[in-house]
Inverse folding.
């Protein structure tokens, strides 16, 4: 279905008004609420501006602005559909928006991915459009929208794209500012261990590189996880990246 992604003459003013509302809040909930309200006003009752993660158990640094039926979200999470979601999969290969009805998208779907879409459609999540979103040091993300029965003015889609990209980045900036303000600092040894874990090194290899025991390395990493308030090593690395404790340059092997 062809759509015009040209910018409406009044869209710029609406975008700047949205930006002003978001800049006036320092909470991710405030940004999310503003975005959902804006999308509803434009004709999109269902909204998922999110990192490609479990919606009910997002890791640190994930963006999760979601207005989908609660029963579908619970089912999606319990089945761990984020691992198979064809929309997420296709969004990671593109930089431009796509409709779920697009032939190229449909041609890629098979097996469990067909089930994800079919079950989503039964819950009312059908005939959507997805905007891929990327950012430096950001988790893979996208914005999926489902229009109401009246549809949406085609002139509004460039505005929708700009609103989604801005809202995602604003939410990330708020998270980063919160982490930098509240996050306890890692010790130098904790930073070293996390950097080496991020490079794919085992505890034994790290112990050899740092001249200590394997048990000492494990204890150090466990302390870092506790200090960062996370449950897994992957979450610790993500949180340390977002807080500036380590950088992508640090973990380049």
């Amino acid at each position: 279905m062809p759509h015009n992604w040209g910018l409406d003459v009044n869209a710029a003013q609406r975008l700047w008004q949205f930006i002003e509302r978001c800049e006036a809040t320092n909470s991710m909930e405030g940004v999310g609420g503003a975005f959902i309200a804006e999308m509803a006003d434009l004709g999109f009752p269902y909204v998922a501006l999110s990192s490609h993660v479990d919606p009910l158990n997002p890791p640190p640094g994930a963006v999760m602005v979601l207005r989908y039926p609660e029963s579908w979200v619970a089912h999606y999470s319990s089945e761990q559909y984020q691992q198979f979601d064809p929309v997420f999969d296709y969004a990671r290969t593109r930089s431009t928006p796509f409709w779920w009805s697009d032939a190229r998208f449909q041609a890629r779907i098979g097996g469990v991915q067909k089930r994800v879409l079919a079950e989503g459609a039964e819950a009312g999540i059908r005939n959507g459009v997805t905007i891929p979103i990327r950012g430096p040091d950001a988790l893979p993300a996208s914005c999926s929208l489902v229009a109401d029965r009246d549809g949406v003015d085609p002139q509004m889609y460039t505005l929708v794209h700009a609103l989604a990209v801005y809202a995602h980045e604003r939410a990330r900036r708020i998270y980063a500012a919160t982490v930098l303000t509240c996050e306890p600092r890692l010790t130098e040894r904790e930073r070293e261990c996390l950097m080496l874990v991020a490079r794919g090194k085992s505890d034994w290899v790290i112990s050899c590189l740092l001249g200590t025991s394997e048990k000492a390395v494990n204890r150090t990493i466990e302390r870092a996880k506790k200090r960062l308030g996370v449950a897994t090593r992957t979450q610790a690395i993500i949180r340390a990246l977002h807080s500036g404790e380590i950088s992508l340059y640090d973990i380049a092997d």
The first strand starts at residue 46 and ends at 51.
